[in-house]
Amino acid sequence: MNATEGVAAAVLIIGDEILSGRTQDVNLAAIASFLATHGVDLAEARIIGDERAEIIAALRALRDRYDYVLTTGGIGPTHDDITADCVAEVSEAPLYEHPEILAILEARWPDELTPARRRMARVPNGSELIKNPLGGPPGFLIDNVFVLAGVPQVMRGMLSDVGWRLKGGAVVMSRTVRVDGVGEGLIAAPLERVAAAHPALSLGSYPYFSEAGYGSNLVLRGRDADELAFTVAELVDTLSASGITSILIDPPAVTSRATSG
Amino acid sequence: MNATEGVAAAVLIIGDEILSGRTQDVNLAAIASFLATHGVDLAEARIIGDERAEIIAALRALRDRYDYVLTTGGIGPTHDDITADCVAEVSEAPLYEHPEILAILEARWPDELTPARRRMARVPNGSELIKNPLGGPPGFLIDNVFVLAGVPQVMRGMLSDVGWRLKGGAVVMSRTVRVDGVGEGLIAAPLERVAAAHPALSLGSYPYFSEAGYGSNLVLRGRDADELAFTVAELVDTLSASGITSILIDPPAVTSRATSG
Asked: Which of A142, A147, B47, B125 is the most exposed place for a label (fewest CB within 10 A)?
C-alpha cells in the first residue's frame, strides 16, 4: 500500500513553543511539499522541546535510519537555542566560528555584535553553509543533517539552497479521484481491492465535509505514470461497478476539513 | 530551564496525508493547549504514515516512556485505517466488536452498515470508550493510550471525554514579557541570567516581525505562581539594567510569525 522504496527523509522540529500549543507549526507541511517535488519521501516527523538529551537522542535515531534529516528551530541567539551544539555532538565535529557567518553577522549588526549573536556563527567542523536569502545567519549541512531556521519565512528561504543537494528518487506523482455524496464506508471495499492489486502505489481516502455536501478524495500516489493512469481507470471502473457514479477525476481541489479516520 | 517534572504525554499523529504535505495538521496544537490546561506536559509528538510496523514501534516507544499517549487518525473504515489493529497488538488485547459501537453504527447507517463501516466497531478487549459528541463511532482508551479520530472537529469533540480521565500535575501557568524594537541578540544575555537563576521555570524567547515593527515575546512558564510573578519582576529589572526599556508585561497578543531560532 505504500510507495516508500526511494530516498527517505525525516523532519525534526525543535521548540518548546510548538509543544506548548503557543505556536502552530507550519514548517512541516512546507518541507513535506518541498521534499515531494524532489522525489524524497518524508517518512517521519518528530517534534521535541529545547532539551539537549532529547535532541541528541532524536538526531541519532533519525540520521541513522533515513537518507536525510532536516531540523528546524533552535539556531537563534538565546540560551534555549542549542541545536548546533547537539548536532556537533552527534557528528563528533567540534563547533567553530565560521568566518563567512561572522562576516554576515558583523555586517548586520556592526555596533551590536553581542556574544549572544556571535553564537550564531558557530557550526560543526566540516559543515557546508545553507544560504539564508533573507540576509541573516545561514543554516548548515553536516553528514546527512540539514539544520534550518525555525522562523517560517527564513526556513522556506533556506530550502531554496537545499534542493540541489538532495539526490532524490523518482518523483512521486499523485492523481485524485473525487467521489461526491458517498461516505468512506461504501468506498472502502472497492478501494481496498484496487489497492491490493497495486502494492507499488499508495492509495488513501480523505473524506471532506463542506456546506455544499460531503464525499471523499481518493488519492493515488506512485512513481510510475503509466501504472498510475491505469489504476485511476481501474478504480473508476471498480467504483462504478459498486454503484458509485458521482466520480470526478483530478477535480479542482475541495477544501478538506478532515485529516483522516 | 524546563518545567517537565510533572505528568507527561506524547502525541502520535498517524496519516500519510500529513507527511505528503497534502494536509496541514491542526490537531497537535489543539491537543497541546488542551493538555496544558489539564496540567499535563506535552513532551513529544511524532507524525508517521499508515504503516503497521511504524505505528507499532512508535506506540511501544511512547507508551513506555510517558504517562499518556494520544493518537489521532487511522480509525476510519478504509483499508489504510489500521490504528486499532496496531494498538491491539501492542496492548496484547484482541480486537472485538463492541456492542455499544455496533449500536451506534447501526443507528447511523441502518441500511448501509457495510463490512468496512463495521470495522469501526472493533476495539481491543478491555478498552473504555471515548465519546464522540458528533454522533459517529467513539474513540477508546486502553492502558495509557487514548485513540482519537483524525478529523479535527471529531478529535476536539472526543477531547471533552478525555480530560476527566487525566490525572494532571499542577497546571503550568505562563506569563509574557514583550520587548518591542529590540532583537533577540540583545535580550539573550539578560534572559539567560534570569533563566539560570530559576531552573524550575521554562523561559523562552519568541521573536515577532510585523509591519508595525519587531521585537520578542519572552514567555515564562512554571507551576508556582509566586515564583512566576517574582521572576517576571526580576526579568524586567534585568532587562532595564541592560538599557532595554520598551517592555510590556502580559501585553495583548502580537501575532508571532516566528516559531523559534
From this structure: B125
